[in-house]
Amino acid sequence: MRTPKLLRTQAFRIVGIYLAIFAVSTLALVGFVYWNTSLVLDRETDETIEAEITGLEEQYSTLGLPGVTDAIIGRSVRREQGIYLLANSNRRVLAGNLDGWPQVSTTNGGFVEFRYERRIGNVAQLRSARGRIITLTQGFYLLVARDVDERRALENVFKTALLWGAGLMIVLGLVGGLLISHNFLKRLELINRTSRQIMGGDLSLRVPVTRAGDEFDDLSLHLNRMLDRIERLLHGMREVSDNVAHDLRSPLNRLRNRLELAAMRQPADSETARDFDAAVQETDRLIGTFNALLLIAEAEAGSVRETMHNLSLGDVIEGVGELYGPLAEEKQLRFVVKKAPDAGLIRGNLNLVSQALANLVDKAIKYTPPGGTVVVSLENNPSGPALVVADDGPGIPAQDRARVTERFVRLESSRNSPGTGLGLSLVAAVARMHDAELSFDDNQPGLRATLNFKRAAEGPRPAKVALAREVVSEPVH
Amino acid sequence: MRVLVVEDDLEAQRYMVKGLKEAGHVVDEAGEGETGLTLALSRPYDVAIVDRMLPKLDGLRLVGKMREERNNTPVLFLSALSDVDDRIKGLRAGGDDYLTKPYAFAELLARLDALVRRRDPGSVKTRVSVGDLELDLLSRTAKRNGSAIELQPREFRLLEYLMRHAGQIVTRTMLLENVWEYHFDPQTNVIDVHISRLRAKIDKGFEAPLLHTVRGAGYMIRAHA
Question: Is residue B161 domain-shared with residue B205, that is, in the same domain?
């Protein structure tokens, strides 16, 4: 079970921690007051009892049993709170204001506590008392006690107050925490929503700033200033690449034209004509690299976002599969195109996504030896639709997989095959532009390249049956 | 044919004009937009090549004004900008084709040819034929010398495009753009494989091949002379 979002916020956590600290300290404070008060009250009671016992003992030693009996009778009548009892060695009551010797429980310091019945009008009340029993000479027992029911009641008041107080504090604290988190979340969500939209490509958006002038507004202002700067940088980058494009394309264009015209003037099949042809081809390769670099720069500057539409990856995979199928067959490869049903509606640029897939397919066909298999599939992953190109060729060693998308990286094993070293960088750039994730895995054996897209907002839900249509073309022998 | 070249890179313009003349065309040239527009509106041309970024009058606006004046000369935009939406903007502004610099001269010639031919209005064709190869555009069937040829839908489109441009050179890029509707460089020459499969279907067993490879340029379908 997931905790609700409100409870997982930092604000709620902070409120929770404060609440705990506050609760503990309040409990400690109230506990201390209670403990101290009861200590003082207990001592007062005990001292009174001690004093009375001392008095009665004196009475006994000077006036004997009759004297102490008189004193007890006298005190029993006068003092409401006092309990006095004189008993013989068989605990038979001789004088005092209790009907019988009570069942006592001994506590610390020779004091006892017991329950007794007291009549107020017609109502009998069972009350608590605390007192001391001493043994007089000749085997008489003397009990002097004080009614502590009120003090016990006070104790209970403290306990209830503590419980209620703590409960109320926790409830109020939780409510407060929720309110504060809700408030935090609302402000943060505003910032998050804008950030998501900006990451989605709309760099002109800014985080709204309220009039509160609080720390969130500070954060928003700073974010906005940062965004301004990023936008300016991107704009500058776009300008530079436009200028580079223009300034390099024109001379490359003249170079190519010149070579072509010169080649035309040579008698066909002469050695010079062949040299010129080779030079033209070399220029074309240069132009190809240059175009790929520009396209990557463009993709990274994000200028292509304006050309994104709702796009079916099913169409992409069909188109590219159909374009490359014959090439694979000519190389004696088994070429399989698989499509998950109703998958793959994304926002994207058809031409760029097709080119990215074409680059992956092209590489798979190039590096898989004859007799191998290349599978191009559209899968319906929980996170979104994915284009997958899997082959059973030599693959890429694990330590090189992260490196292959860097510009101009060509692995040792492929040094001798043609290529610019930009093909996979372009795929990576297209992936970034589309918020897609490009990954390379071991296909055991071979390489499995995955381009995992994010589902379009109102895209279809993932289907349970993954592969419904399968187009298999067998190599022509 | 009569070609108007509006290009501000004078050296590139010189080579283009030279090449076009050597290919047998009549060429007028302008170095900026205003002169270009005056020429375009005052003389009849079969086709105009217009650079997108021109001094005085921008290429897009030049073509816009031509279209406002009901001048329907086909226009091929030439541009150093290859942004995906630059192409769309160019075509939306009234251009008929878009070629990114640097371009191959053979590509330029082939595209000019295609643009001029496309203008032949005629009635809507339901049937095209080259030699004894016949294509029925309604029933989407092909026959050579009376016997049916089995074609995949894409092969049919490929053959249709080639036959609509019979006698003209069609480049690989033109095929990729018009038959597959892709505007990118597929690195490997995938088009060649498709052509060789098509060739196996229409030319195999016949004495005179119809589908020819033009070295350094592209392909052409043509009945033998």
Answer: yes
In this prediction, the answer to ipTM > 0.95 reads no
Q: Are residues B142 and B67 in the same domain?
A: no
Same domain, B203 and B179: yes
Chain A residues whose beta carbon lies within 8 Å of the beta carbon of residue B101: 249-250, 252-253
Distance from CA of B202 to the nearest CA of A (A): 17
Check which CATH number belongs to the domain holding B153 and give it: 1.10.10.10
Q: How many domains does chain B have?
A: 2
Q: How far is A16 from chain B (nearest CA, A)?
A: 54
Question: By CB neighbour count within 10 A (0-12 exposed, 13-18 middle, 19+ buried), where does A2 fall?
Answer: exposed
Contacts A366 to B, Cβ<8 Å: 188
Phi-psi region of B57 (alpha: psi -120 to 50; beta: other; left: phi over 0): beta
- Give the closest-approach CA distance of A186 to chain B in angstroms: 38
Residue of A nearest to B11 (CA): A254
Residue B61's CATH number: 3.40.50.2300
Of A246, A304, A327, Cβ closest to residue B80: A246
DSSP letter for each residue of A314-326:
HHHHHHHHHHHHH
- Answer yes or no: do B216 and A291 touch at CB < 8 A: no
Q: How far apart are CA A241 and CA A245, in angstroms?
A: 6
Give every CB contact of residue A31 below 8 A, 6+ residues apart in sequence: A162
Cβ neighbours around B176 below 10 Å, total = 19
> Same structural domain for residues B40 and B110?
yes
Nearest to A451 by CA among A463, A434, A468: A434
Work out the minimum CA distance from B103 to partner chain A, whole angstroms: 7
Residue A466 φ/ψ, nearest 5 degrees: -80, -55
Distance, in Å, from the CA atom of B128 to the CA atom of B120, rounded to the nearest integer, reads 14
- Both B28 and B136 in one domain: the answer is no
Q: What is the pLDDT along chain A (477 residues), one digit of tens a residue?
A: 456 666 777 777 887 888 888 888 888 888 888 888 888 888 888 888 888 888 888 888 888 888 888 888 888 877 667 888 888 888 888 888 887 888 888 776 778 888 888 777 777 878 888 888 888 888 888 888 888 888 778 788 888 888 888 788 888 888 888 888 888 888 888 888 888 888 766 778 888 888 877 888 888 899 899 989 988 887 887 777 777 776 787 788 888 888 887 887 788 778 888 888 888 888 888 877 787 777 777 776 666 666 778 888 888 999 999 999 999 999 999 999 988 876 678 888 888 899 899 999 998 998 899 999 999 999 888 888 999 999 988 878 877 777 776 666 655 555 444 456 678 888 888 888 888 889 888 888 888 999 998 876 544 443 333 333 444 555 544
Do both B134 and B76 map to the same domain?
no
Q: Which domains does chain A have, with CATH numbers?
A: 5-157 (3.30.450), 215-303 (1.10.287.130), 308-473 (3.30.565.10)
Measure CA B84 to chain center: 19
**Encoded tokens for A309:** 């539409």
- B85 with B191, same domain: the answer is no
CB contacts of B88 in chain A (<8 Å) are: 307
Q: Which domain holds residue B84?
A: 2-118
Tokens 């217009």 -> residue: B50
CA nearest to B183 within chain A = A351
pTM beyond 0.80, yes or no: no
Question: Are B30 and B67 in the same domain?
Answer: yes
